[in-house]
Amino acid sequence: MAELRLSVQLAPRSKRGLWLKNPVMVAAGTFGYGDELAPVLDIQRLGAIVCKGTTLKPRPGHPQPRLIETASGLLNSIGLHNIGVDALIRDKAPLWATWQVPVIVNIAGETVEEYARLAARLEGVAGVSALEVNISCPNLEAGGMEFGTDPVTAAEVTAAVKEVTSLPVMVKLSPNVTDIAEIAGAVAQAGADALTVINTLKGMAIDVARRRPALGSGVGGLSGPAIKPVALYMVYRVAQAVEVPVIGCGGIASAQDALEFLMAGASAVQVGTANFVNPKVALEIIGGIEAFMRREGVGDIAQLIGAAQP
Amino acid sequence: MPIETCLVLSNEGLTPGAYLLWLEAPEVAPHARPGQYVMVRCSSDHDPLLRRPLSVHRVEEERLALYFAVVGRGTEWLARRRPSDEVDILGPLGNGFKIEPHSRNLLLVAGGMGIAPLVFLAQKAAAEGYSPILIHGAPGALALYPQRLLPPRVDLRLATEDGSQGEKGLATELMVRYLEWADQVFACGPVGMYRAMAAHDLDKPVQVSLEVRLACGLGGCLGCAIHTRQGQRLVCRDGPIFDLGEILWDELKM
Ligand SMILES: Cc1cc2nc3c(=O)[nH]c(=O)nc-3n(C[C@H](O)[C@H](O)[C@H](O)COP(=O)(O)OP(=O)(O)OC[C@H]3O[C@@H](n4cnc5c(N)ncnc54)[C@H](O)[C@@H]3O)c2cc1C
Ligand SMILES: Cc1cc2nc3c(=O)[nH]c(=O)nc-3n(C[C@H](O)[C@H](O)[C@H](O)COP(=O)(O)O)c2cc1C
Fold first, then answer.
1. Domain count, chain B
2. Which tens digits make up the pLDDT trace of B11-45?
3. B-interface mutation test, from A33, A35, A36, most B Cβ less than 10 A away
4. CA of A224: which chain B residue's CA is closest?
5. Has residue B100 been placed in a domain?
6. How many CB atoms lie under 10 A from the CB of residue B112?
7. pLDDT, tens only, B142-177
8. What is the DSSP-derived secondary structure letter of residue A265?
């Protein structure tokens, strides 16, 4: 068979565009800034790397314990521990500029203005290929309600970021909502180039010996294989609701999982928690997708995207 | 840094609930230093999900040993591995113990399972010409690490809480007698043991191995960050070995 085509365009509406050589990225917060994992695998073969969620100022994050394992899942409350955008621009971006693999910076703020200032700071920084906007953050101007749970504020953040950047903008949706399609529509309308679906599900565990919540911060986000069916359904829903590319994320741990997300309508996928179990899993997923395409006589990955949609 | 699928050479219960597991690990074993650890997959599917950190207990050429207590589902799974089964490890990881250039008298203090990394340190130190003293404490004689398995030239001193073997008392109580002699102290055990050591106001370098929950082992998830006197540190990568004086005790209440 002729050469397989795995490349995908994730920001067709953006002037710059975002071409990935394959549709498999690693998810924010599970792969550091990329360099930490470089001794273990050839990171240049990844479709893209999404870096740790970044804020204007460095943040120390939440107290220990930050991780609790659950049945086939993981609860985390890292609390956006990160080095801050200035250190990122100074210490990480110059390294990224020498890489083949595109790096997408995940940004997080507490006010609409903070998101905009972050995007403005990252404008023109060599080594940054796109922004991913984490809207699962408490909005300090709305009593701590998450930006991503209200279509109006979600759209406001999106528009504010779009206005100050020429980079492609992916908006990462929260699953902790009544109707994700409504939020997706509002965010796409506000100018998002692509949507990442989904962030972690809210969850907790109790330490019965202490009679207290087990995580240091009380509540956390659930990820890993346990959330895959939920994430898959949300991708399926959102892909029907919007025209922009959808990036599937949540519980992906094998090529089979990734194929399910592509067929549900995702143009690309992100692998998160599974990196902890097997740091090479994203590369194995790329190999597995290729093997599937060969076996099934699929020449272009585009033929698989949304194949399971009605 | 390799991920290696290792052949199980042997896996035997040494003390009640604790196992000595020897693996064929030609890619990992030759690079391991005392105090480092490996992340061990403890299932063949998604449950339990995360790898478990276990200290490198011994290295013989291309073979690597782990010494672990069965405390939950991961270590239970590991205890059931039989010769010719396979175990997947990632490592070696972490900073490891550091012997200062001018140190001659090395005092190793092991509380219970804390002996796991210290046997490797004792082995290396003895091979380099030191004559380390290894203090090992346990609740009773049954829980003591078998002396016949220790490398030669390691001077072992035992303490049991019930007095069934060695001195009656805690490892830290026995430790006090050798403090004057020691140039440097290396310890591994429960947090309570480190607190007791810190209370002694030791005027010499003390390195301890810290335990928090890890996920990736590579500095990628920031799950194991703790505040220290030197600022924020990742136990997985900046540790697990820290100077006793660096530790802020409130951080270790978990
Ligand atoms: C760097 C490092 C080196 C280690 N070396 C060794 C070693 O050589 N030998 C050895 O026996 N053990 C060692 N440990 C501890 C070992 O990793 C754990 O005992 C193991 O992960 C338990 O896995 P499990 O699935 O059997 O138990 P789990 O089911 O994961 O846990 C059993 C119980 O312990 C609790 N728990 C688990 N981890 C922690 C934690 N970090 N803090 C507080 N509570 C916890 C759980 O909530 C649960 O109640 C080391 C730990 C670290 C960080
Ligand atoms: C330890 C950890 C840290 C995370 N940090 C971030 C973050 O900083 N920003 C973000 O948008 N998502 C973050 N996430 C969410 C993941 O990127 C991903 O959306 C989620 O974990 C679901 O995918 P998974 O099941 O493959 O892990 C984090 C997840 C984990 C497990």
1. 2
2. 999 999 999 999 999 999 999 999 999 999 999 99
3. A36
4. B49
5. no
6. 21
7. 999 999 999 888 999 999 999 999 999 999 999 999
8. T
